[in-house]
Methyltransferase domain-containing protein
Amino acid sequence: MTDAAYLLVHEDREYLLEPGEEFGTDLGVIEVPEDVEGGDEIETHLGTVFEARELRGPDLFNHLERTGAPMMPRDVGLVMGHAGISGGDRVLDAGTGTGILSAYLGRAGADVTTYEVDADFADVARANMETAGVADRVEVRTGDLTEALDDLADEDSFDALTLDTGDAPAVVERAADLLVPGGHLAVYSPFVEGTREAALAAREAGFEGVETLETIQREMDFSERGSRPSTAGVGHTGYLVFGRAP
């Protein structure tokens, strides 16, 4: 991976900083050494000690610059688990956005080509890949994947296709041309209508084992009175369609 940013942590304070960066806080000025490593202690000019920590997946979600609502870690986990994406896999992605999914996949060792139609969003995503230390694994292309399908079909096939776009069903219709035999498809959508269209398109394209999932999580509360699920509402994030190429 390329050089990544680090979290500088003191008690409940967290700052995402690059090697060589200087940052002023009410606890003093932090000067991050160029050769910083995870576990190093860095003292501000006022004597406050911060610990440098290497970024992990949840840190990416919490600290990368956002251009909209990023995919939640629980949905990222489903994509990685059901699609079996790992080191050495080639992944084609569309709807980069903030780049959370691409960053996770890159840190898992996959080589990702991701499309983002908004040029400003794409620029932010490229900067986020640098921060995450995966710019050498994740190529962010500005453009519409549907307009590049013919050219991509002539390239080497991908091991997985991940989509987070409104026109995902149109891409799914061509997905078998893009994937290796048995390659995985994962489509994310916040709405039932788009999810249904993607699932039907996958079945019509001959994909195997097509299934649609929604992840519901409940936090547990523990007190002296007893233990029970939190009374806070269970928030909907999105639906995921999975399938395997014929």
